[in-house]
Amino acid sequence: MSDDVKNLANAIARIAQKDGEHPILNSRVRLVRSSDPSSPLPCMYFFGLGVTVSGSKDIMIGERIYPMRAGQAMLPPADLPVITAITHATPDHPYLGLWIDLDIRLMAELAVEIPTPPHAPETELSCMHVTNLDSGISNALIRLLELQNKPDLASHLLPVIQREITIRLLHGPFGPCLRHHLSMESPVQRITSILSWLRENFCQDITAAAMASRANMSASTFRQHFKSVTGISPLQYLKQIRLLEARQLMLHDRVDAGSAAFHVGYESASQFSREYTRMFGAPPVRDIRRLRETVHMGGDVTPQTEIIPAQHAL
Predict the structure, then answer these.
(1) Which end of the chain lies in a sparser environment, N or C, as judged by fewer CB atoms within 10 Å?
(2) What's the domain range around 299?
(3) How far apart are CA 142 and CA 248, in angstroms?
(4) Which residue from 141, 120, 100, 159 is spatially nearest to 11, judged by alpha carbons?
(5) Strands 56-61 and 29-34: what pairing?
(6) Residue 121 banded pLDDT, cuts 50, 70, 90
(7) Same domain flag for 38 and 88
(8) Long-range own/partner contacts, residues 88-92 (CB < 8 A, 24 or more apart)
(9) What's the order of all strands across the beta sheet hosting 95-101?
(10) 291: Cβ–Cβ under 8 A, 6 or more apart, which residues?
(11) The last residue of a domain, from among 160, 182, 204
């Protein structure tokens, strides 16, 4: 582990002294600490930078697994349903992670202003990959964390450091795929627009053909690009965001399973229960009871959903 990563890990550990999720700087940054491995858990990733500085975790998108080790970063190209699991963590060497929200509008503006670095490598359509964290971003993140104890400076310097991180991302390994993603003519941009639309309309009766038409693509081309970006088919994506939303409703709003199923677009309660059990490993009532018991006993369900922005959580 490089000195930059060690320094970043120490900075996170000073703030996140207990297991769980620790939102800071008005929840624009979330820190995670876990002393134990976690079982796989479905959740949503949104546009932002995720970093692992101690321990390790696996991220499954569709059928592909992305291992994240200490000193590595990842940046989802779109709103993605994923399955995460912390694979290595102990009380002496806990898992430590960080997530920072990114402003896609600022990213687009800077992509136009900043020239493309020479000899930029070719990029995959999905843009989703894990890469080593460079020292420039590590140092910027450390300065960002130092603002936690300087509230009088945070409001002024936080936007400056976020802008610096965005510039460094455009210049670094993520740069080519980010530029491709931000291009209005790119298939990724059109798929991303569909994903944003689905997040607002997932409870409606939506077909894959209707999504393809909205993206102005043929059904086969749409399915190909959609799976390249998200790792799953359009209807699988729709099902997963519905189930994640239903879980949030039952857990946080105490909505019963039947009402939650109807709210997210299911017409059959039995189908909802079957698909929920397949995704979360237990029927709705049993799963929610287990999560509530975990919280009641002093545990925290958030370590496994560490990079879901609270305001965006499904």
Answers:
(1) N
(2) 187-305
(3) 32
(4) 141
(5) unpaired
(6) low
(7) yes
(8) 88/37, 88/55, 88/56, 89/34, 89/35, 89/36, 89/37, 89/55, 90/35, 90/36, 91/35
(9) 20-24, 29-34, 95-101, 48-54, 72-74, 130-132
(10) 251, 301
(11) 182
Q: Would you call 103 helix, strand, or coil by DSSP?
A: coil
Q: At what angle do helices 269-280 and 284-296 cross, to 10 degrees?
A: 50
Question: Residues 47, 98: one domain?
Answer: yes
Assess whether pLDDT exceeds 60 at residue 264. Answer: yes
Place of tokens 């399973």: 257
For residues 204 and 169, state if they share a domain.
no
147 and 210 together in one domain? no
**What's the pTM value of the predicted model, to 2 decimals?**
0.81
Would you say residue 68 lies in a domain? yes
Token pair listed for 15: 């703030």
CATH assignment of the domain containing 193: 1.10.10.60
Q: Identify the bridge partners of residue 21 per DSSP, sorted by sequence position.
A: 32
Residue 14 confidence (pLDDT) above 80:
yes
253 located within any domain: yes
DSSP readout, 153-212? HHHHHHHHHHHHHHHHHHHSTTHHHHHHHH-TTSHHHHHHHHHHHHHHHTTS---HHHHH
The structural domain count of the chain equals 2
Helix axes 234-252, 284-296, angle to 10 degrees: 50
- 112: which 2 tokens? 């136009």
